Structure formats: C-alpha cells, structure tokens
C-alpha cells in the first residue's frame, strides 16, 4: 500500500495594503489547484494619527462555485486558511459596507502553499531547500509588516491618551488658578474695613 504525504514546497507570500472607503468593499482572487492551501493574515487600522479607535471589517472567502468557505464579521485582525477542494479562482473580500466610519487601512498577507506528493523525486533537491528558505524569509517579512501596523495603531492610541492627559492637566491648572483668584478676592473683601458715617 502506497502512502503519500502532503508537504509544502513553496509558500508564496505577498504583502498588500488597501484603503477601504466608508461603505466600501475590496475583493481579490487567487487561482488555486486542488489541495493547494490559501492562508491570509490581516490587520485593520486607521491612517489618521489622531484616531485611537480600533476598527473592524468583515472578511470572507468564496469558492469558484460561489460557496462561502470562510466568513468572519467584526474582526480587527485575523488569520484564516483554507485547503482548495477543487481547481479554480478563489475570491476573498474585505468589507466596510455596514458602517460609514472613516477610511480603514487594511494590511494583509497571502501565504500560498502548493500541494506536493512526497513520492516526487524533485521534493528532495537544492531547489526545494532554496524555496523553503525563501518561504521562511517571506514569513519573517510578513510578521514584520504585521508588527508595523500594530505599532502604528498602539502609537496612535498612546498619542491620543497623552493629548487627553495634557488638556485635562491644563483644565485643572485653570480651575486651580480661578479658585485661587476667587479666594484672594473673597478674603480681601472679608477683611476690608468698612467705616460707618
């Protein structure tokens, strides 16, 4: 009895950035063969540095027959993967259609793993090792891209918090100064000598 093992040979990683307008949707596609794997990781943010709110999008993957294989709603980041049940064009979409919020910046990476039969004599070659090294390097680049988006989002949150603390401190100083002036004025009136004629 012959056994075959599924190995991944090539992982094609590409990083993309897309701006979703309010009530907008962006769809992309990949041509896959049966048993190929499609993995997508994404992160949602805002390009406005004054905006500290964490936004989310809807995400789904459709098969060539129009069947929804994965559907996620209300996510600000995620990692999804499918194994292609048949050959064809697989579509994945990001949607901001339900809300009229600001433009959303979606950064995503596509990791494609190609199905290889272990009995194939080409699977134990130098080309395989080079492609595997390339895949690992691209995985590191994809992770760095993800961390850059997370850092930008967290920096925006920290800057917004710092701004609020600054303005609250200014307000407190003004209240203390006004209270001091009032107390001086009130005490001055209290100790004034009024002469009766």
- The third-level CATH topology is Jelly Rolls
Distance between the termini: 124 Å
Return residue spans where pLDDT drops below 50 for at least 5 consecutive residues.
1-14
Range of helix content: 25-40%
Estimated radius of gyration:
29 Å
Order of strands across the widest beta sheet?
Answer: 1-8-3-6
Main beta sheet strand tally, sense and closure = 4 strands, antiparallel
The proportion of residues in beta strands is: 35-45%
Shape estimate: elongated
CATH architecture: Sandwich
Mean pLDDT: 78
Secondary-structure class: alpha+beta
Number of helices: 1
> What's the CATH class, please?
Mainly Beta
Number of strands: 8
Estimate nothing, just give the exact number of structural domains.
1
What is the multimeric organization of the chains shown? Answer: single chain
Structural overview:
This is GOLD domain-containing protein. A hairpin with a 5-residue loop joins strand 4 and strand 5. By secondary structure, the protein is of the alpha+beta class. The chain has 1 helix and 8 strands; from the N terminus they run ββββββββα. The chain has a single domain, classed as Jelly Rolls.
Main traits of this protein?
single chain; 197 residues; alpha+beta; Jelly Rolls; four-stranded antiparallel sheet; 1 helix; 8 strands; 33% helix; disordered N terminus; signal
């Amino acid at each position: 009895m012959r056994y075959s093992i599924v190995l991944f040979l090539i992982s094609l990683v590409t990083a993309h950035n897309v701006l979703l307008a309010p009530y907008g949707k962006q769809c992309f596609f990949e041509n896959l063969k049966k048993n190929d794997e499609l993995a997508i990781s994404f992160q949602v943010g805002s390009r406005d540095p004054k905006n500290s709110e964490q936004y989310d999008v809807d995400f789904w993957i459709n098969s060539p027959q129009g069947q929804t294989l994965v559907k996620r709603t209300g996510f600000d980041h995620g990692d999804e993967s499918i194994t292609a049940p048949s050959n064809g064009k697989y579509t994945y979409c990001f949607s901001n259609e339900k809300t009229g919020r600001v433009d959303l910046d979606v950064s995503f990476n596509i990791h494609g793993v190609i199905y290889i039969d272990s009995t194939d004599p080409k699977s134990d070659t130098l080309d395989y090792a080079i492609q595997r090294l390339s895949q690992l390097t691209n995985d590191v680049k994809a992770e760095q891209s993800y961390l850059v988006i997370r850092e930008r989002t967290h920096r925006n949150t920290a800057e917004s918090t710092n701004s609020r603390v600054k303005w609250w401190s200014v307000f407190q100083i003004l209240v203390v100064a006004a209270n001091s002036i009032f107390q001086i004025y009130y005490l001055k009136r209290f100790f004034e000598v009024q002469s009766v004629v």
